[in-house]
């Protein structure tokens, strides 16, 4: 399997990255180099092997917790918006999406 | 004033000198701040806030004056810039977060502060902790004090430099695929990554959520044990993967002979397993690791001899899926990274491009300007392997192989108590030497990735020097929750050797 430049364009769009042609070429070479070493995974028989998400689940059952659906943090809007690129009257500003 | 200078003291010595009022917390912080600033050419620190540091130090001095004592009370530390902090900018080594001011402290940072530790500043790292050389930082390289033309390793490169160059007695780091153990190895530092889920990830800027773990780096296993005892413990409401296991005192076994052992042979009865797949065995013609350099092999073999003298039994074990850890990890980690990093959209925080056409263009330009090349590569890999039609072939398959790797370890731990081997196949390389060839960089993580994928606690302990007087670290891996036993083993080694006390010339 080998990726093509059109794959790179498609993936870059999904990832919301801008990829000028020269950079896309380079990315293509590097990603194909990487997927060459991924090929060895194919030879491994993983039939019936349960995927492992939380590592300690290999020795013990791990269940993800749910906490009560109540606000646990104080309202700290000013501090939270301090590093926002554009804010007005407590609102995040984005470019116009509806004409 | 004691005879030793402040920067020459480790955590235990500093805490004792401060508790005995030989020096104040303020004096300790001032001395180390001055020293850190004097050595800024090493690129270890990314940010200082002297007012905040001295305020914390004065608060510690007040607690001491009120009669309080504690193993970290008044001790200056520094944090990898992957932990968010209220009093210092938090950048993750990325242009994306230049100047970012967090509204809160990471749990690990808050716990250390509650124990009275004083924050000196924030430490350089590979961007979003992606890399093994610190060359991927948007704020410049960090330099290895053992040879300033060489990398300190990464991603916790600034952390390792700060400890090695005596710019802090101890620091925090994070380890996703080896980011504590490999720089510790390259810089002659002791570092431990605990069992996955032991330290809260709350406030640790996320890279790969099923792998990221915080841990301490210091000049000895004993100092690491002191820090880890404070850092670890459940954080049930704030980290859904935090393990519901009570905090413990990781210093409790230090200096204790094992059951049935003696003072001369404190590790008698300890079974140390050395993976068949990791070393070049002289009696095995079928297996050669061409990536393992001779000086590392010789140094590790020497360390294993020390363990035998301490009474341990060294035996061969098998980790047959070792080589698959590179592809499995470099599928899983980028997949999780691409999800985690989707939050950087130029809207709520982080970099926003100055010019753009519309919302989508704003996302794309902001992200392409804010993320460096390695981060973009991993986002591309992750986006691809999670995209429609490829999930089963890559992500699911990698998670299945991850279980096989974890099962290998459980099989091995039926035959041994601790696993030992190199932390990295080579010593530190020259800055720029590996270029940005991702495959060459990824393959260098071969010995740290297996324990990361399995979520096992792992350490790197100074074990001697290879060619060019460059440090070599011995990796020790324990079973889940066996951090205290690992630290006991490392401490016994450090009682019998003095590698960990060696300081680079000029520091």
Summarize the structure.
The complex is a heterodimer of chains A (99) and B (507). Chain A is mainly alpha-helical.
List the keywords.
heterodimer, A: mainly alpha, Histone, subunit A, two-stranded antiparallel ribbon, 3 helices, 2 strands, 33% helix, B: 507 residues, alpha/beta, Amidase signature (AS) enzymes, 12% strand
Account of the 3D structure:
The complex is a heterodimer of chains A (99) and B (507). By secondary structure, chain A is mainly α. Chain A has a domain at 1-42: Histone, subunit A (Orthogonal Bundle). Chain A has helices at 5-14, 21-38, 77-81; strands spanning 87-88, 91-92. In chain A, strands 1-2 form a two-stranded antiparallel sheet. The mean pLDDT of chain A is 92. The mean pLDDT of chain B is 96. Chain B starts with 10 loop residues before the first helix and ends in an 11-residue tail after the last helix. With 507 residues, chain B is of the alpha/beta class. The radius of gyration of chain B is 22 Å and the shape is globular. In chain B, helix 7 runs antiparallel to helix 15 (483-496), helix 9 (325-340) crosses helix 11 and helix 9 (325-340) crosses helix 12. In chain B, 35% of the residues lie in helices and 12% in strands. Chain B has a domain at 6-231: Amidase signature (AS) domain (Amidase signature (AS) enzymes, Alpha-Beta Complex), CATH 3.90.1300.10. The interface between A and B is large, with 53 and 74 residues.
